[in-house]
Amino acid sequence: MISSLAAAERVCANSGWTATNLSLQKILYIAHMIRLGRSGGQEKLLDGHFEAWDYGPVEPNVYKRVCGFGAEAIRDIFSSPPIPNQGADALLIDEACNFLLTKTPGELVAITHWPNGAWAKNYVPGRKHILITDSDIFEEYTKRFS
Description:
Layout: H1 4-14, H2 21-38, E1 50-53, E2 56-58, H3 60-66, H4 88-100, H5 105-112, H6 118-122, E3 131-132, H7 134-145
Antiparallel strand pairs: 1-2, 1-3
Helix pairs in contact: 1-2, 1-4, 2-4, 2-5, 2-7
């Protein structure tokens, strides 16, 4: 398990510092889902948690760090220790970035707003701080990939 902020920094670096808050949140969520899915629900990727917000799953600690950029590209404002390049965590984040950084914001929203997914199960319009449990995220993985 790694720091959510270290993972966010790696996603932003992989994007060439063009990632926005929306794309960053979606990529972190999907990478976290993949780790949960591949481990049978036993291993988290991130040390944080996700909440069901209006625009999809949000890791609140990452949001607090990057919200000042609005819809603009996130600059390097992180100070987390880097994730070792050849570790499983780095490779998983890189894998997610290779696939997802080519997606438009609309495509990323469509992925994370899947009607049978964890976000849709927990989302209440206009409310924040509704926890999306790792068990719900794992369940989404199994529905998508079984």
